[in-house]
Amino acid sequence: MTEVRPRAALSAALWERDDEVAAITRAVDILCADRSSPGSLLVLRGEAGLGKTALLAETRRIAEQRGCTVWSARGGETLRTVPFNVVRQLLQPALVSMLPEEVREYLGDWYDIAGPALGVADPGDRHADPQGVCEGLVAAVRRLARRDWPLVLLVDDAHWADQETLYWLAEFAERLADLSVLVVVARRPGEISGAGARHLDAVAAAADRPVTTLSALTPAATAGLTRATLGDDADAAFCREVWAVTGGNPYETVELLAKVRDSELEPVEAHAGELRDLNRSARGGGLVARLEQLGIDATRFAWAAAILGSDITVDLVARLATLDHDDAVRCAELLRTARILTPPDPATGRTGPADLEFVHPLIATAVYNSIPDALRRAMHGIAARIVTDSGRGAAAAARHLLEVHPDDDEELVWQLREAAREHLAVGAPDAARRCLERALEEPPRPEVHAQVLYELGCATFLTAPARTIGHLRTALGMPGLDGDRRVDAVVRLSQALLHNDQLEEAVRTVEAEATRLEPGPAQMRLRTVQFMWEGIHAGEAASPGRSERLAELAATCTGRDNSERALLMVRAFDAMMRGENAEEIVEICDRALVNGRLAPGLGWTDSEWGVELLLMVADAYAYTDRLDRAESLYNEALHAYDTAGWGGGHLALAHAYVGLGHRRRGRLTEAEASLRESLRLAERVGRGLPLYWTATCNLVDTLLARGHVDEAWEVAERHGFAPPYPSTIVLPDPRSVRGRLLLAVGRTKEGINELEAAEKAAAARGHHNPVHVFWAADLARALATEDPARAARLALDVRRNAERFGTDTALGEALRVAAALETGRRAVGLAAQAVTHLESSPCQYEHAAARVEYGILARSVPDLERGLALARSCGADGLVRRARAELESASEPR
């Protein structure tokens, strides 16, 4: 049993908390010992009243005693719908102490991304990417922490924190290893579900030690606390009854003892029976009854304070409770005396203009729940008006607007739509969704109903594509969406269907809408989107005549507007996949650009056209040996998403295609680094999505090129790189890569089967590009011994397709395959031709492989040495080992 020691009543909640205080002290001492010490995280869990807040206060005392900077924040039950509420509390004290230019300097490139979420910068016009905003907040704390070391962050009542803060906290907790910060989080068990619960679980998983679960006081500790508060003459029976009545809950024990002292009740057994009535007056219905005894004005004041929830000032409460100033001051004093409200603790460093706060969240909850439902809703409406009149904007009033009773209020619908726009601009789509869903309950006027549904569909697009589908379908079935807005809704619906793995339905949706329209830019946009979705569909077969129709339509396009440019991009990609003449493909790509650059409105962060379209033109350049243009576009995408703070799927795709560019160029080490980063980001977005396949497929292909076969197999196994394949096209062809992998690990029969499956899929789609879909080359090599006739036919097909396509890479690779199937002078001659073509190709890995192979066949030491040097520069370790072995063999005496 923990030893009971006399303490002052003010530290009552720390009784029997010696172990917890010792752990906190150790963590603070480690933090202060070395600026390079890793960050740490402690999680305190306990029911209401068990002393979590007191332990955080003790953490502050210990930390400040050692010279630490301490920032703190607290979740609120009625504030959970306010995005970034808790993280703003945490960081704003540091930010408001700076000059505006200092804030911009410390946030750096993240200022325009994280600044609006923190309330220190105006939001832009675009929808902010939630992942990017989260990354910006992580970066903000990192930079501020370096300035304010040693830094301690305290988060109380985390179970009531807003979802955006919890998302940030989970991300930040994972990155503490290289940041010298101590984070202490206090929460109740339960109280939260869904995404918020998952984020809190992730925080707990990142903690340095198991979660500390607080327990109630023992009878002995309760007796010690009772005597410390009421005097040593409190008898044992009275002390036992205090414990029985409160269950050892420290908060309830302190409150009960305060009432015993105020009532001048003698702490003896004869009065123990009165304790239960006194305890009931401290919480729940008893608290409400006690509040009513203070009078109607004090009750209204307390209700108004509970509605406000935070930043409670006497003047603001007076306006909400319709009290004059003198009466409000009198009520505030009554509620302070009754231990319902208290002045804020100045040590917390809050920046809001607050005069009061509730003594404990339990009291705030009890008061809020005591407000009659109709009156509570009406008071929220008044509070919303007060906030709006103060000039703080619709988003600040939104939490009150959400609670107002639906009443066919046109202005309320407008305010909620404005609030949703503001939420989206700071990266809080979930908050925007709540506003728009509430607007639909009002309901909106018939002429704007479809507009609200459209906005709701846009708000849920990144987080819940299935919901987006329902909202947009309903909107399109109603009057009110016309012209460009209707076309945009159809395109967004098709994108949501694509992301929900309903590609065929996406195609049918845009096709049906295009059929309704007269020829013109709108119809052209829809036709282009239709061709685009069909072009990336990896189904069994393309629709009959699709490529011919696309080529015929593109032939009329000069690139005079973005609809025509978009169609040209789709046409170039289709031609590349089919293996048509590379020079003609490049000419089509060039027509789709303006002076070699993407046209305004067709940028990587523009919303009218999807990222898939821009990747099409970049990929067409990449596989036609115009790697300089492809890499320029890939890097432009990466820079655009970094600058805009788009840290989710868009950034994962950008890293994947930068990696693909490195792989095509032959920079295998750089390719691997980019692809691993892409896969890390893709894991956050979700497995099974096209971007996840793109990252995994390219990483496996790169590791095989490096000669890291075991590592490639491990990546494939860990990330599910195996059938069934996604419904969208992935570059390079995943079946071909999977077949190559199986051959490399010695599973020859399975590898041949996989490559034959790739053959069937490519034939059905008309994909004959020998560089992107390279199954035939590997299958020919695999069959060289057991079926040389078929291998020869395959090699001939590869060469025909390469000659049709016409790039040096395709021709060189085809000649490498032919050389591998020949012997003697014929093999040497073909290998020499392969080197000639690949020497002119931008693909240095393939050039290195051709050099080594020619050096072996021709017994040419200079070519082996040249191949070895190229392989080293590429990071192709397997090829390096092969070249070295051949050189050593060549130097041995015969």
From TrEMBL:
Location of the Orc1-like AAA ATPase domain: 16-184
Segments forming a coiled coil: none
Keyword ATP-binding: yes
Keyword list, A-Z: ATP-binding, Nucleotide-binding
The keyword Transmembrane helix belongs to this UniProt entry's keyword annotation: no
Name of the featured protein: AAA family ATPase
Organism: Streptomyces virens
